[in-house]
Every structure is written in C-alpha cells, then in structure tokens.
Amino acid sequence: FNNHPLNETMMKVAALALLAGSAAAFAPAAPASRTSVALNAEKSASLPFLNRPPLLDGSMAGDVGFDPLGLSNIDDVGIDLYWLREAEIKHARVAMLAV
Fold first, then answer.
1. Could you give the C-alpha distances from 92 to 70, 79, 80, in angstroms and in order?
2. Closest CA to 52 of 60, 61, 43
C-alpha cells in the first residue's frame, strides 16, 4: 500500500508545494505603486483608517477620536457627549468596586 505510485506522486507534489511556499516567503516584495488621494475629512488619531467624529475635537481629556461605534453622534435621543462621559466614569468605578 505504501509503494503505490499515486502516494509517491502526492508526496512529491506536497514537498514541492512546501518548498515553493517557503521560498516565496523570503522573496523580495514587488514595489507597490504609490497613489495619493486628497481627502477633505480629517482622520482619527486612534483609528487612522476612519474619519474623526465631528464632536470629538480633542477638547476633552483623553480625546483622540476613538469612536468606532459612532456613539458620539446620537444627539437625536437627548444624550450628549458629557452625559456619556459621566456614565462611562460611573460604570468604570462600579466595575472597579466589583473586583
């Protein structure tokens, strides 16, 4: 069963694939073409691939524009950014007490 020609061929193909894959890992990468696009939106300091939320302008302590869920933009329900900050501090203090 071990000397079957199909098994030998499969082993040779597997060994060749492993060698080619390991050699490709050390090959130099092709130079990427550089294109630049001017954007009007300012990028967040904490998440540079997202736009900075408009209400997070750096005026609060620790504000670096981190709002991936967009919670700073929920003005339509009557909750402002200062209320959210106080709620976060309160919940953090309760969590520290629980530990």
1. 20, 19, 19
2. 43
Give burial (CB, 10 Å; 0-12/13-18/19+) of 66. middle
Give the three-state DSSP class for 51.
strand
Query: Rounded distance, CA 54 to CA 59, Å?
Result: 12
Q: Are 58 and 81 in contact (CB under 8 A)?
A: no
| Residues 47 and 68 sit within 8 Å (Cβ to Cβ) | yes
Cα-based torsion angle of the residue sequence 32, 33, 38, 39 in order, rounded to the nearest 10 degrees: -40
Residue type, 99: V
The predicted-structure confidence for 58-94, as pLDDT tens digits, reads as follows 888 778 888 878 888 777 777 788 888 899 899 999 9
Q: Per the structure block, which two tokens stand in for 61?
A: 């302590």
